[in-house]
Design brief:
The chain is of the alpha+beta class. The protein has two helices and four strands, in the order βαβαββ. A four-stranded mixed beta sheet has the order 1-2-4-3. 18% of the residues are buried.
Amino acid sequence: MTFADESFDTVVMYNAVGHLCAVLEKVLKECVRVTKNGGKIFVISSFGMDMPVIDEKLLPLLAKKQLAYAEESDGTFRYIKIGR
């Protein structure tokens, strides 16, 4: 992305993780880079192809990078809030 470091309070990925599977680590790195310290990154999904990517790639990647996150679901949407 061409945005400066710490440009945004909030970054949102909506129904996108399944499409970004092959580059997920790079995408997460960029999201963290452009999010202000104290900001949040939201991964929101209702898309079936996102769910295995979230479980098998995103959550282990967050653990590996030691990024704190909280997860919720309302039956339709799955929300992952990543703290910066």
